Structure formats: structure tokens, C-alpha cells
What we know:
- By secondary structure, the protein is an alpha/beta fold.
- It has three domains: about 10-150, no CATH class; about 155-295, no CATH class; about 330-375, no CATH class.
- About 50% of the residues lie in helices and about 10% in strands.
- The termini are far apart.
- The relative contact order is 0.06.
Amino acid sequence: MTQAMAPLHQHLQPVDLPLAQIYLDPNNPRFTDSDWAYIATEHWDKPDVQEAAHRRLIADFDVEKLRMSMEVNGFLPIDRVIVKQFAHDKYVVLEGNRRIGAAKLIGQYALDGSAVSPTVIESLASIPCLLYTGTDGDAAWVFQGLRHISGVAEWSAFNKAKLLVEQMEKDSLSLTQVGKRFGLTPHGAGQWVRGYYAFKQAREASDYINEVDERSYPYFQELFGRSSAPVREWLEWNDDKYEFTSKLNLDEFISWLYPRPDTGVEDGTSKKGDFGRRRIARRDDIRQLAVLMINEKDLFEQFRGGTDLEACYSLLLTRRFEEEAKRKSDPVSELFAAVEICTKVVGNVPYKAMKDPETKAKIIEALIKLENVISDIKP
């Protein structure tokens, strides 16, 4: 008869530990890829082993973002770090490596150069932990699995944006300040916040207030990505009022997300848009729309008229391919195009470049080579 597994809580004891006594797990389950090699217990506290684990966390697991948040909020004991003892006064992390990795990065000065608050430094002096006293050699896998597979539920994009806006409004924070609080860059925070206000406008002041729901929030957030600027400009975003000023274009944009049936239903009730039939299948497809607006306005108009976005974008790529093939097959035209570009570039050499002696010398050297080529061609 198989013996029942003992509940994990029986092997966990609350304990507060100095940060210096807590070591990153060099065998972190996050690290187990094809080139991973197990590191023996007696090497866990070696400086080079710890440095390698720290570098891996920073490079691949967004520890810098967590650090940015911690520099503002301090170490928050919302969830205790789980550790086990492996030597005298030395404990390895089973769950919470990212938090400990971020904490070990914090010094007197923050990433942006500002001074870190003494209260934040104080919060790092003693870390609330749970000490694992069991004997399971795979305990790290168990605890991380509980948290990341069946544990904390992921918030929706809308709820994350709503939290940022509520914090901004409640504490009169700037985008930079609220971003630092949640480990976001000012641009990242701005994308979440502006997307929230754009979504709110669509939900409260458009012709689709009965249709717009939280499923479409990521599309409004995407409008504030760098690649989506043409679409945002077409909607006439006003950054002072946090709203789109072209109501007609906004309603048209929403109609692509919630297309309404061409004919009414038989009982005479109003037509309602269906997100399941949206003409922009994925949020990233807004970038394709932006490319059409910039480069092929006729294809954008075809999309507005009902042609599938993917078909319009495919036609754009076909045109580009044909133009490139034509250019390669006509070297004379290619020469004229290159000469025209060269003339413009040389005629607009930045003043700053000519002020730097080394850069100036390289530019003159390149121009001399060009002059020699031109001399060989001219009669």
C-alpha cells in the first residue's frame, strides 16, 4: 500500500534571515535547458557560481524590472521566500530567486541615478522566509511548480492597466513614477495607461458602448506602441486630454473589432457587433495596418472597403518583391537611384560629424574615393 504524501506545510517554518546568508539556487529549475549541468552542494556558495546564477537571472528573467520596482517599494513580504539550509548560516533559495536576485542588486543609488530611500535599504536587511526542513531533493521543482503552474492566477491586461491608472490618480503620480513602482519604463507605463483611457473612451463615448468589452483592451494598448503610430495619428490622439479627437475614425476602428451584421435581425432588435468576427485578428496586426497607411494608401482604402487585412498586406509584400526584382533587373535605374541618394546624403552631412576630427577625416577619405571613381567615368 502506497504511503500518503505528507502535507508540505509540516516542513515549513517562518524565519527572518539576513540577505547575505541567502544564496541563489545554481540549479534553479528555470535554468534547466539543454546545456545545463548540475552543480554540487559544496559549490553553491562559491562566488563564481553565485555570479553565474545572478547573471543568468538578469539576462533571461527580467530581474532588472523587479529591481526597479523594489527600489521604490522596498522588499515586500507578500509571499515569503522559501529556502533550505545547506551549510552553517547559509541558505539556498527554493522559490523566490528573482526577488533575492533583485534585492542583491540594490545599493545606494537606483538604476536612474537617484538615491535609494533608507527605508528601502532597511527593508532588505532581514528577509521574511519559510525554511524548508523536509528531505525532498526536488523541493525547488515542487514549490516553483505550485506557484507557476497551479498557483497565482495571471491578471488580465485590462486589470493591470486599471491598477496603474488608479495608482496614478490616487497618489498623483507621473508615468515615470508609476512605472518605477511596478517595474516598467516610462514608455511601457505610458502604453498601458494611454491604452486604458483609449479603451475607456471607446466604452463610454463611442457608437459601440454596448459592444466594447475587456477583450479588446490589448488592441487599444497596442495603438500606443511605436510601430502603431500611423494608426494612432489617424485616430488623432490628444495626449493632453488622453483621448482620440476623431470620433468618426474611432468608431470605424471599433467597427473592425466589433463588426455588425449587414442586415438586422428578423425581430427588429438593433444590430450588435461581434468580437468573434473581428477584422483585425490579432493585436499585432495593427502594425500591418500602420504599414498600409504609410506605404500603400490604396490598400488601406481597400481594407476599409471590406477586403481582408491579410490579403491587403500580402499584396503589399508582393508589390515590394516585384519592385525589388525590377530594380535588380535594371542596373541603370538602380545607378540613378543610388546617385540621387548619395547626393542627398553628402549634401546633408551633419555639422556635429564635421566637428569631430576623427569622423571628419573618415568622411573626407570616403569622399576622395568617390571623387576618384567619378573622375574615371567622366570624359
